[in-house]
């Protein structure tokens, strides 16, 4: 069997990441080489992708040693979404190793290109990361979970109709969102609950009927990111940990119109708590 037809399982997270020549891997290696030169670090052990509302976490994860503008790294561009940061930070963790902290991600709705979405996590793998932390701001489907609440991602539904994988690339997603790291998170904050994240393609917010559908399918959270990133991360050999910040209730659950400003404001209000929890989890990895 060639590389593209080899099944990828959870155990592959312990082997060398980014094996083979899947589309997008070469560009990710080029990006990693630029980051290594710009940051002075040959390897970054962990990668963190900060979604809406999670920006404050960058200051708590570790000591910043270097930063690179996204637009200066092959395959990336400055974010178009308010509330996202246009830099990649190289951060020294408490154990002396480095983490890559991405202040933004590429969203599927920007170009309908799943390969562009996957570039962030593939670059992380090429830079030596073995674990990726994916965060986002999302809509909540449970009226009892108030805006400003962090939720662990236990699983996802990919309703984009797309995938970052090409050809006969069979990837096992049974335990995609690391049970090990979720256990660590609950040890740090026993109040954390978990749920199923549903990715829609966006950029429009979900309709009340789509929210009801997502809930009927088993979803707890709705948003426009993360599932495609997570698929690509598992394929690249990374252990995946995901956390959502509920920034609003889904359409039809809350009566007021949805807006991106609401998402940004909820993230700012919850910032100190969620940033501390995330930093404490990363310190245990």
From TrEMBL:
Nucleoside phosphorylase domain location:
45-283
- The residues forming the signal peptide are none
Ordered alphabetically, the record's keywords are: Glycosyltransferase, Transferase
**Main enzyme class:** transferase
* CC terms in the record's Gene Ontology section: cytoplasm
Polar residues bias (residue ranges): 1-14
Entry superkingdom: Bacteria
Keyword check for Amino-acid biosynthesis? no
Q: Name one Pfam family in it.
A: PNP_UDP_1
Q: Where is this region: Disordered?
A: 1-24
Q: Which GO terms describe its molecular function?
A: purine-nucleoside phosphorylase activity
* Gene Ontology process terms (BP): nucleoside metabolic process
- Reaction it catalyzes: a purine 2'-deoxy-D-ribonucleoside + phosphate = a purine nucleobase + 2-deoxy-alpha-D-ribose 1-phosphate
In short, the EC number is: 2.4.2.1
- Which pathway is this protein assigned to? Purine metabolism; purine nucleoside salvage
Oligomer status and interactors: Homotrimer.
**Functional description taken from the UniProt entry:** The purine nucleoside phosphorylases catalyze the phosphorolytic breakdown of the N-glycosidic bond in the beta-(deoxy)ribonucleoside molecules, with the formation of the corresponding free purine bases and pentose-1-phosphate. Cleaves guanosine, inosine, 2'-deoxyguanosine and 2'-deoxyinosine.
Can you tell me which family this protein belongs to?
Belongs to the PNP/MTAP phosphorylase family.
Q: Which PANTHER family match?
A: METHYLTHIOADENOSINE/PURINE NUCLEOSIDE PHOSPHORYLASE, PURINE NUCLEOSIDE PHOSPHORYLASE-RELATED
Q: What is this protein called?
A: Purine nucleoside phosphorylase
Source species: Micrococcus flavus
């Amino acid at each position: 069997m060639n590389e593209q037809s080899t099944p990828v399982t959870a155990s592959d997270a312990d082997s060398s990441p980014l094996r083979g020549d899947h589309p997008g891997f070469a560009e990710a290696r080029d990006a990693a080489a630029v980051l290594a030169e710009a940051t002075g670090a040959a390897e970054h052990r962990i990668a963190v992708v900060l979604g809406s509302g999670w920006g404050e976490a960058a200051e708590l994860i570790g000591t910043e040693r270097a930063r690179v503008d996204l637009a200066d790294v092959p395959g990336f561009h400055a974010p178009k979404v308010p509330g996202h940061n246009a830099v990649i930070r190289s951060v020294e963790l408490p154990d002396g190793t480095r983490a890559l902290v991405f202040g933004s991600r590429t969203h599927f709705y920007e170009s309908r290109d799943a390969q562009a979405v996957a570039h962030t996590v593939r670059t992380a793998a090429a830079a030596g990361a073995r674990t990726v932390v994916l965060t986002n701001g999302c809509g909540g489907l449970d009226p009892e979970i108030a805006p400003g609440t962090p939720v662990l991602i236990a699983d996802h539904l990919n309703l984009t109709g797309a995938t970052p994988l090409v050809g006969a690339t069979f990837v096992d997603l049974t335990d995609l969102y690391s049970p090990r790291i979720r256990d660590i998170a609950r040890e740090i904050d026993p109040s954390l609950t978990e749920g199923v994240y549903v990715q829609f393609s966006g950029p429009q917010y979900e309709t009340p009927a789509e929210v009801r559908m997502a809930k009927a399918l088993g979803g707890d959270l709705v948003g426009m990111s993360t599932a495609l990133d997570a698929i690509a991360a598992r394929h690249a050999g990374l252990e995946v940990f995901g956390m959502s910040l509920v920034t609003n209730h889904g359409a039809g659950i809350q009566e007021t119109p949805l807006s991106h400003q609401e998402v940004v404001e909820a993230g700012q209000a919850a910032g100190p708590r969620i940033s501390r929890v995330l930093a404490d989890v990363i310190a245990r990895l």
